[in-house]
Amino acid sequence: MIFSSYKHLRNKLLEREITCESVVRDYLGRIQQNRHRNVYIAVFEKEALERARELDRKLENGERPGRLFGLPMAIKDNIAIEGFGLTCASAILSNYTAVYHATVVDRLLAEDAVFLGKVNMDEFAMGSSNENSAFGPVLNPFDEKRVPGGSSGGSAASVAGDLAMAALGSDTGGSVRQPAGFCNVVGLKPTYGRVSRYGLVAFGSSFDQIGVLAGNCDDAALVLGVIAGKDQFDTTSSGHAVPDYPAEMKSVSVDGLKIGVPREYFPETLHGTVASVVKKRLDELQEAGAELVDITLPGSDYAIAAYYILTTAEASSNLARFDGARYGYRSEKADNLSEMYVNSRTEGFGSEVKRRIMLGTYVLSAGYYDTYYKKAQQVRRVFLNSYKEAFDRVDVIAGPTSPFPPFGIGDKTEDPLEMYLADVFTVPASIAGMPAVSVPAGFDDTGLPVGLQLIGDFFREGTILGVARSIQEAWQNQGELQEK
Ligand code: GLN
Fold first, then answer.
1. Residue 177 and residue 216: Cα distance in Å, rounded?
2. For atom 5 of ligand 1, which residue has the closest CA?
3. Which helix (H) or strand (E) holds 362?
4. How many CB atoms lie within 10 A of CB 269?
5. What is the per-residue pLDDT for 478?
6. Which helix (H) or strand (E) holds 275?
7. Which ligand 1 atom is at minimum distance from the Cα of 126?
8. Ligand 1: which residues within 6 Å by Cβ?
9. Which atom of ligand 1 is nearest to the CA of 125?
10. Which of 90, 128, 129, 151 is catalytic?
11. What is the pLDDT of residues 211-239, one digit of tens each?
12. Neighbouring-strand partners of residue 279
């Protein structure tokens, strides 16, 4: 049983052609068969089946089914589900159990979603390949020798491999969009503040957003509509009204749409087939009546530098709480308090997390604060202004999600800077706080997926999803859809 969309599954459930239990069993079976891909950190076998039976009874009793009735989902393991592990793929939290539900979790449960389990990620969401996980790498379902992207690699690989119908991820600088691009699924990072971060373990708090990964834009829009909105537990969550995303998305017309194509997104060094696949999709939009507008985004050259200064600064402060005293792992090898702190953190954190804590502590230190942190904040402002100006002229901005197709496991682990460059196209929207989506755009000549990124003005999730939807439909109708 594989369904083309949630609507397809929902119709079958509501018409009683199938039961939630049979659907969940089916997903659990595939998860079991694909254990070697290392997608799940924890599978909720018993609980998911119990929940499915409860939902089946609900229908039998004539109760109204929720908006996500029976939707089998995977949740990134940095989002809290009360009573279950919350590891962030780190040894330091390997024995930690969440004591409350994240707001997004409450909202999904209230609409009758089913959680299949918690999925793998880069430790504390730091990485672009899912190789920085204490639980080992995740394999890309399109080529198991390659990475699924990161840090939400498990979320993307779960949807791509039909091991979940939709997943939640988190995106600080591209962690939903880049793995979505690498795994041929839709990945949406909402506007900063659109979705509550309550219950999401913080990495770079002024960047972090929970996002949705799904097989198509309709499913992504549906899930977004459920999780978005003001939350009294997150003061940075926005009170901006939550629109009917599926309706808003369907009302978007490509004809007459102005699409900004930034020069900075098509550098000489861009991988050849990534460039040609993305350009082909843009040409088709033009044929359908869209106007392609050549734009520039001043400040782009400094995006990676500013991002890694600001997020490491925030991470060094956010991760100070993991000290062996209050959460998770505590080292046995300590004779006094300070040794306990040092050894717990030394043994508990992986090397990328340590690198970032050190970098962040350095850029915040008294003597260097103005040179690095303050400068990076100024760059952030320049960025925001250049995006704002761009949106005075265009409706959406388009370009590739990643500068290259999925790379081999181990190819970039030796050189952290090389790994950081994987985010060059996704980081800008995160710096500006704007919504962005990666949509499947086609395949390179070896059959690896290529993602196209659309960036929108604040709270224009419906618009970017609408354009993304027409892209996905157009090329999939051409029969280019490749069997997994
Ligand atoms: N790959 C980027 C990083 O390592 C983005 C991570 C994220 O979005 N969580 O910081």
1. 13
2. 173
3. helix 351-364
4. 9
5. 72
6. helix 272-287
7. 4
8. 125-128, 151, 170-175, 203, 311, 423
9. 9
10. 151
11. 999 999 999 999 999 999 999 999 999 99
12. none
